[in-house]
Amino acid sequence: MDAGRIEPVSTTRWPAEWEPKDALLLTWPENRETWPGERLKRVEAVYVELLRTMASRQRVLCLVSSAVVGEYADRLVRQSIDLGTSLDLEWIVMPTNDLWVRDYGPIGVLEGDQPVWLDWTYNAWGGKYPPFDLDHAIPKTLAGSLDVTVQSYETVLEGGAIEGNGDGLLLTTKAVLQSPARNPGVSQHRLDQILQEAFGVSHVCWFDAGLKGDDTDGHVDDFARFVRKDVVLMAQDTPGGPNEQVLRENKETLTRFGQDLRVQQGFDLNIIDLPMPRCEIEGTTVDGSSIVPASYANFVFGDNTVYLPLYDPKTDREAIAIFQDILPELEIVGIQCHDLVWGQGSIHCVTQNLIGLSE
Q1: CA distance 358 to 156
Q2: Rounded to whole angstroms, what are the CA distances from 172 to 62, 211, 241, 283?
Q3: In whole angstroms, what is the distance from residue 74 CA to residue 112 CA?
Q4: What is the predicted pLDDT for the residue at 7?
Q5: Alpha helix ranges (H) inside the chain
Q6: In 54, 65, 136, 218, which residue has its Cα 20 to 30 A from 29's Cα atom?
Q7: What is the percentage of the chain residues whose pLDDT exceeds 70?
Q8: How many CB atoms lie within 10 A of CB 52?
Q9: Could you tell me the domains of the chain?
Q10: Whole-angstrom Cα distance, residue 202 to residue 197?
């Protein structure tokens, strides 16, 4: 079954990403295994643009390994802004293993009107990239420092592996959550129950797999994203492209899921195609891949803003136009992410939404 129907027993709700948030959380790049040689400087330049752009529009927190690194990073960001420009940017000294905070950071839900951070077990995508102990500790450590209630789960789950509409629907992939390296022996039915309890969802759409070149095994935030509670942007590759077949199959899965929703609830789910940029690269990534998961689906909602990753002028303009058409009330801000996606992730992968913060 593509759609899992679960009887609601939870009072918890996972807000949609376009709903109000208190801040965006990022982690400054420092891991030289992920970013060897001159790659570190190149991704630092992307982060300067990310932090400059985001913190000029909303509150941003950024984790660094030390005060010295924080001073260095702050100096780079401040040098990039015009005199008189204000940034709502706070550096938090909290060591990490890597920068993929979407996956190991806290996921905020509402229990009634009370915010709670969910702390899932994190093992670096099935143990691919040890060590990961510092990343795994971030939700509890950060919650303790910011005085936020936290709820821990033994289930292995990364933030990029799930996508929700804030109103009972959740998308995910079997290749990730049902991976033996993550949750061995845990059935899809049991995972449905865990997702329902934790996020308050009533229907789960299970895709089989994700993009080629995605070393997470196929995170859903690279190909299918809600932009309204009844609208999903679904990446579709060009004929002959490396992701043509898997994305065609995923669209078929989502279409069947939508048909089930129409029958069960009279709910119409609208699917809008999103182009794929070129994802073949010269040379290879650190894990030997010649393909990266470049995708416009890996965008982030900010305050009255969409931060959209850009990769290729040939497809960037089309992607921007789609977002402008669907979300005319929001500012679409493009950020060049060619050097970020070389590390096999993009803007959504390196940010996490925070709720429950005091002023």
Answers
A1: 29
A2: 27, 13, 23, 31
A3: 38
A4: 53
A5: 39-55, 67-79, 101-104, 124-127, 133-146, 174-177, 188-199, 244-265, 313-326, 338-341
A6: 218
A7: 97
A8: 21
A9: 3-354 (3.75.10.10)
A10: 10
Give the β-pairing of 60-64 and 89-93. parallel
Nearest to 34 by CA among 23, 42, 45, 24: 42
At 307 the three-state DSSP class reads strand
Cα–Cα–Cα angle for 67, 72, 75, rounded to 5 degrees: 120
The rounded distance, in Å, linking the Cα atoms of 128 and 217 is 10
Rounded CA separation 210/222 (Å): 8
Which tens digit of pLDDT belongs to each residue from 203-224? 999 999 999 999 999 999 999 9
SS (H, E, C) 229-269: CCEEEEEECCCCCCCHHHHHHHHHHHHHHHHHHHHHHCCCC
Residue with tokens 């899965």: 253
Q: What is the DSSP letter of 141?
A: H
Residue matched to tokens 């102990």: 133
Instruction: Provide the 3-class DSSP secondary structure of residue 117.
Output: strand
pLDDT tens readout for residues 150-199: 999 999 999 999 999 999 999 999 999 999 999 999 999 999 999 999 99
- Burial class for 215, CB neighbours closer than 10 Å (0-12, 13-18, 19+): buried
Q: What's the CA gap between 1 and 102, in Å, rounded?
A: 28
CB 211 within 8 A of CB 241: no
Q: β-strands 12-13, 114-121: how paired?
A: unpaired
Tokens of 254: 């989502």
CA distance 48 to 46: 5
Q: DSSP secondary-structure letter at 323?
A: H
Q: What is the pLDDT of residues 228-249, one digit of tens each?
A: 999 999 999 999 999 999 999 9
